[in-house]
Amino acid sequence: MTFDLSQAQAVIVLAWRHLSCGRHQEASILFELLVKLMPASSELRLALANAQLGCGRPADAAATLSVLESSHDPVAHFLRGRALARLGHMDDARLAFNKYRECRKALP
Length: 108
Fold this sequence. Notes:
By secondary structure, the protein is mainly α. It has one domain (5-106): Alpha Horseshoe (Serine Threonine Protein Phosphatase 5, Tetratricopeptide repeat), CATH 1.25.40. It contains 6 helices and no strands. It is globular. The model has no long low-confidence stretch (mean pLDDT 95). It comes from Rhodoferax potami. This is Tetratricopeptide repeat protein.
């Protein structure tokens, strides 16, 4: 499936709208499609992981975020910590939250 730029932007807006309204399942479906179309977009991966957590799918969220493990984006580490904590991996979650705090301190 391919989209032109205006179609992709419309799907992005709809996905964010679903996420902001708490419709995590619908948002997850759209963000999964968008990540497949634009795999280099860390913003879309973060949104997908957030939607997956909202759907009660922490394992999927952790897998989505594994690509961003070396990122300096604090949100990636915060969401990863949440996913790992929900999976019961408390030591790994603690490390992710520590990385979150380090990245936050490094922000201007």
